[in-house]
Amino acid sequence: MSGQRDIQRVLITGGAGFIGSHLTCALVDRGVAVTVLDNLSPQIHGRDGQSPTLGTIRDLARIIRGDVRDRAAIEEAVAGQDAVVHLAAETGTGQSMYEIERYVDVNVRGTSVLLDVLSAAKTKVRKLVVASSRAVYGEGSYHCPQHGTVYPGSRSDERLVAGDFEVKCPHCGTNVECIATDESAKLHPSSVYGITKLSQEQLVMATGRAAGFPVTALRYQNVYGPGQSLSNPYTGILSIFSTRILNGNDIQIFEDGSESRDFVFIDDVVDATVLALENPAADHEVFGVGTGQPTSVVTVAEALRDAYGRQSALFVNGKYRLGDIRHNYADLTKITAKLGFRPRYDFRSGIAQFVAWVEGQSVPADQSDRSLHEMAAKGLYK
Fold it and tell me: Which of 137, 142, 193, 320 is catalytic?
């Protein structure tokens, strides 16, 4: 396609993970030589470091086992690259609230090391894409009948413990309705994870202009699909629910179950990331990546239970996690207008593919209760 940037060699940090492995396959199919830098974290890849995602790319990419905080590893991986996709990060809103140093060290310091190396490289890369997150917004955008579009802050512990989970107008205190969140919305993350993703994004955007290489930040919504880690109890509601269902356990649903997210299928995320790499219209821009449709947590649980044909009980337990948001879904106006991105999968079609993949896997023991016990011990799950 005319106007596209010619990318022949790409480094993907965190490239052996869920998004990275799918992106690797897509780029190799386009004739791109891919290098992967990944520390093969046991939380994501298992203790033996031999996760299914690593297996899918082992024969497709040059794989360097190394940490994004290791300058020597970054220098080795960056050499000769045309572009970098920076996916390496600790993920998990809840866990970030009590493993603060680790999240900041990996996500913020790791990004700073990468940027130092890219800025000093004799042969500069011609594009850097960073995986940001909808978590940078905290709560999404809302409509108040009296005050129009508003950006509420975090819900108070006092209201949550009383069972009032609704989001309030910051001006008049009345309940407000969630609307699509666009890129101009207020940035006020409510978790340590969100703060680190905003820091990554801001570091990349500032350094790219100063050092003279184009950058793009993609604010991914909740990504799911085949290859998602089934053993990580700290992130990925679809994998957590699936593991509980297939282990014969009930499903515990926080708050009142009406909280919602924008669940975007992995293939659509890969499409958006490739567009950001190749299309100069993405340079020095930030884009939300999602479906533009919210889905409640209860709907997710019911859809998974029906798809697996299991009788797991659903318990809406009224409990909550500090740092969680109520609603957020993407406004796709900008990414559609500038890059031509349109998601190909709705929730139902994506779930069907995800479930078909899960049913072909060896499902690990359910460890989600452990993560909740850890949060409860820190006073973060009530």
Answer: 193
Report pLDDT digits (tens) over 101-160.
999 999 999 999 999 999 987 668 999 999 999 999 999 999 999 999 999 999 999 999
Q: Which residue has the tokens 């190394």?
A: 66
If you count DSSP H runs as helices and E runs as strands, how many of each does the chain have, helices first?
A: 15, 16
Tokens of 28: 């190799």
Residue closest to 95 by CA, chosen among 373, 382, 368, 375: 375
Give Cα separations from 167 to 230, 258, 304 (angstroms).
31, 12, 27
Contact 323, 382 (CB under 8 A): no
Region for 10 from its dihedrals, namely left if φ exceeds 0, alpha if ψ lies in -120 to 50, beta otherwise: beta
Cα angle 68, 230, 292 (rounded to 5 degrees) comes to 80
Taking 3-state DSSP, the helix, strand and coil percentages for the chain, each rounded to the nearest 5, stand at: 40, 20, 40
Of 198, 202, 50, 15, the residue nearest 115 (C-alpha):
202
193 carries an active-site annotation:
yes
Packed helices 110-120 and 192-211: angle between N→C axes, nearest 10 degrees: 10
pLDDT digits 0-9 by tens, 285-343: 999 999 999 999 999 999 999 999 998 999 999 999 988 999 999 999 999 999 999 99
